[in-house]
Amino acid sequence: MRITQVRNATVLIEFAGLMEFAGLRVLVDPMLGAKGSQPGFLGVRRNPLVDLPVPLDDLVHPDVVVVTHTHPDHWDAAAAALLPRDVPMLVQHAGDRQILLDAGFEDVTVLNPSHIVSGTTFTRTGGQHGSDETLAARPGLGEVMGVVIGRPGERTVYIAGDTVLTGAVEDAVSTHRPDVIVLNTGEAVLPGLDPILMGADDVVSVNALAPAATLVAVHMEALDHCTVTRAHVRETAAAHGISGVVLVPEDGETLEV
């Protein structure tokens, strides 16, 4: 399995071929626009803050696309314009399905709770895009999901998505026992609200839940409202003696898992 950290929450997961099935390229939460192509969340700098480090041609021919939610840093106008109309798309609910159908995509499935593509099972998990207090103040943050990807002969991958550390994450870890956990750890903050994503300390907490799993920290240094850096995650992991199981890839870096 190869995991490429593209930028922000955009990840490309490549599975090798099986006897019965060809290899599978899974694109997660595609934000494909150029640097500065959309307004910032804080109203000062424009997002994304950095260029796309991977050639577009390497990203726009996936076998399946997972959209955990349709906030613009996970699904942008460039992705809607560039991805093939017939690529299978997996989403969290009917509202996001309609957004993709309206954009011209033909094969959009709501994970409720699972769907199989080319021998690979995608299972929806829960999440919460902020504390109870934050969601009460900003109900427009909307629902989010995580996804567990299971494929025969491969390690199980859990993509937690845009969530704080909640019981839903703990349930996903205990139920699915993933070998690899991808965490969005930028600890994004909107004015006057609690963080709406996990941060460096949450990496330590998730390691305690799944000490044998490899943790991959993403969703950093690409948006104006993310406060945690890669260096912060690496330093925190080192301070707790877990650097060996915490991977913090740079944009464009590919991990061999």
TrEMBL record:
The keyword Hydrolase applies. Pfam families: Lactamase_B_2. The keyword Hydrolase applies. InterPro entries: Metallo-B-lactamas, RibonucZ/Hydroxyglut_hydro, UPF0173_UPF0282_UlaG_hydrolase. Residues 25-220 form the Metallo-beta-lactamase domain. One of its GO terms (molecular function) is hydrolase activity. This is MBL fold metallo-hydrolase. Keywords: Hydrolase.
